[in-house]
Amino acid sequence: MISASHWKGLLGALLCCATGAQAQQAGSPAVSVVAVPPFSTPDDRQTSAGGTLSIAWEASKLIAQDLRTTSEIMPLPPVEKDYYSYPEVTAPSFPKWRSSNAKFLVTGFIQARSDGRVTFGCYVYDVDRGREVARKGFVVAPSEWQRAAHRCSGLAYTAATGAPGIFDSRITYVAESGVGTGRIERIAIMDSDGSNHRYLTKGEAMVLTPRLSPRASRIAFVSLAGGRPQVRLLETETGADRPLVPNEAISFAPRFSADGSQIAFSMMLGQNSDIYVAGAEGGQARRLTTSPGVDTDASFSPDGTKIAFESDRSGSQQLYVMNSDGSGQRRISFGGAAYAAPDWSPDGEWIAFTRREPGGRRIGIVRADGTGERLLTNGPADEGASWAASSRELIFQRIDGAGNSSLYRVSIDGSEPRSVALPQGASDPDWSGVVE
Amino acid sequence: MIRIILALAAIAAGTGAASAQIRAPGIVQRMIPGTRQQAAPVAAVDALRADFLARTGGDTIFFGNNVSGLAAPARATLAAQAAWLRQHPDVAVRIEGHGDTGDTRNHALAMGARRAEEVRSYLVLLGVPAGQVTTTSVGKERPGSPRAVTVLVQ
């Protein structure tokens, strides 16, 4: 038994110190084993989402499942015989986990509160050193326990890799169903683990390239509802949408800045496509490029000072970087092929691209100064890579030999791309930052 | 592909076809008597469309991969289209540009727009009033060769 005072003290410490210990810096591509024994509860009480013990069991399964979707972590999933008594949550038996080769251990508890909500406690331990490296407490409605579990997964991921966790982030894409004249395209959004999948547009008009704002509250996308391609802004909660720039010009290829305040996009004047930037709340668009030909696919650096983009001004599509006022434009791709669709990683280290050559289209990454180019996929019809918040992984579109389009995730460590299970065909994926 | 666009054009045209009916060539007028009033506009546009195709040699201009310039056969077809459009000043057209399927999403969209704009500029150069011709791009969203399709909208 735990005394009430012990319990209160523990809970207070948990809730007050939400940041926890400094995350261990990763650096090696080695896979970390993370043990996820069943979560505990101080007292199995009924809530509106079931008993706290059963929520605890489901939560530990969800965390193991989250961690399994990454290429850097191999979770040891919960097994009933490892069930933790409540005191063991904060005082784990390290030798046992050392013998199972676990580098990290995630424990936690669910406790019903008198106000009808639950406290979700999450602890991460470094098994070798035998000490706590992170802890976080969440007070949520019982039905929201999955979200708390995703954030607990993120805490464990960050502790093990040093990178932001991506489990509480969103993915948007264009859902494609039907063929020929019956073809329907809708904007879909889901949590990064595939849950909470829903459609945001009804499919009356062709839609392209949905791009999430950093916290996934908005989507900039291209609609042909008015007859011509036009960038529009959609509120993900209400479904309301409006044109970004109220004019008749063809506009496309939108992307938010990392702080969500600006949107870079392409607009056509006659045969000339140039890069423009507009405030996400409206206002005049500023023109940043003027070269003849097609300048498109602008992507802000995470600090907002630079923009990567694609231009065919040299005769073929190549990657360029400029300052965010349009000055200092310079080409960074010289690999003997065409390069397109740059996306700047959230940590600023890499620019993902689509490499186009006679053999097909492949996804790769390169540093912003043009060095260190690496191809991550074999194609032959891959494109449109978008970074995970972790900067360790990309989501992209692949068309198979039968012409079916679907989404894949690939880690930058060079492992095989993995298919993302979806209810229908899919294109133009985009991954948000961490939703807090 | 062409058939699909024809059908779409006919539906889109519904309301604006009354004036076109008056100016339509003989083939249309032979079809109109006896048809019910509501069906008439669609039939008229279909017939206009058929006449346009018959007299111009086609509504589709093909381009090379990654190219938006007009080849000689394209110019010949567009000259015939321009002549027809000058004779039908109240028939508006939309030029739909299509990108290369091997291209990337947004570059294909821009290439489609460039092709449509190239066609429009050439028609205007040959005397078609600028206000009669609009452009759009569907990028690589509809399969087929890089092309620009002239769609009757009114």
Describe the secondary-structure layout.
The complex is a heterodimer of chains A (about 425) and B (about 150).
Chain A: H1 4-16, E1 32-35, E2 46-47, E3 50-51, H2 52-68, E4 73-76, H3 86-90, H4 94-99, E5 104-112, E6 118-126, E7 131-140, H5 145-161, E8 170-177, E9 184-191, E10 198-199, E11 207-212, E12 218-223, E13 230-235, E14 241-243, E15 251-256, E16 262-269, E17 272-279, E18 286-287, E19 295-300, E20 306-311, E21 318-323, E22 330-331, E23 338-344, E24 350-357, E25 360-367, E26 374-375, E27 382-387, E28 393-399, E29 405-411, E30 418-419, E31 425-431
Parallel strand pairs in A: 1-4, 1-5
Antiparallel strand pairs in A: 2-3, 5-6, 6-7, 8-9, 8-31, 9-10, 11-12, 12-13, 13-14, 15-16, 16-17, 17-18, 19-20, 20-21, 21-22, 23-24, 24-25, 25-26, 27-28, 28-29, 29-30
Helix pairs in contact in A: 2-5
Chain B: H1 2-13, H2 17-23, H3 26-31, H4 40-56, E1 60-62, H5 72-87, E2 93-98, H6 105-125, E3 133-137, E4 147-152
Parallel strand pairs in B: 2-3
Antiparallel strand pairs in B: 1-4, 2-4
Helix pairs in contact in B: 1-4, 2-4, 5-6
Summarize the model shown.
Chain A is mainly beta and 436 residues long. In chain A, 13% of the residues lie in helices and 41% in strands.
Architecture overview:
The complex is a heterodimer of chains A (436) and B (154). In chain A, 13% of the residues lie in helices and 41% in strands. Chain A is mainly beta. Chain A has a five-stranded mixed beta sheet, sandwiched between helices. In chain A, strands 10-9-8-31 form a four-stranded antiparallel beta sheet, with no helix packed on it. In chain A, helix 2 packs across helix 5 (145-161). Chain A is globular, with a radius of gyration of 23 Å. With 154 residues, chain B is an alpha+beta fold. Chain B has a single domain, classed as 2-Layer Sandwich (60s Ribosomal Protein L30, Chain: A), CATH 3.30.1330. Helices cover 51% and strands 13% of the residues of chain B. Chain B is built from six helices and four strands. Chain B has a four-stranded mixed beta sheet, sandwiched between helices. Chain B is globular, with a radius of gyration of 16 Å. Residues 1-40 of chain B have low confidence and may be disordered. The chains are: A mainly beta (436), B alpha+beta (154).
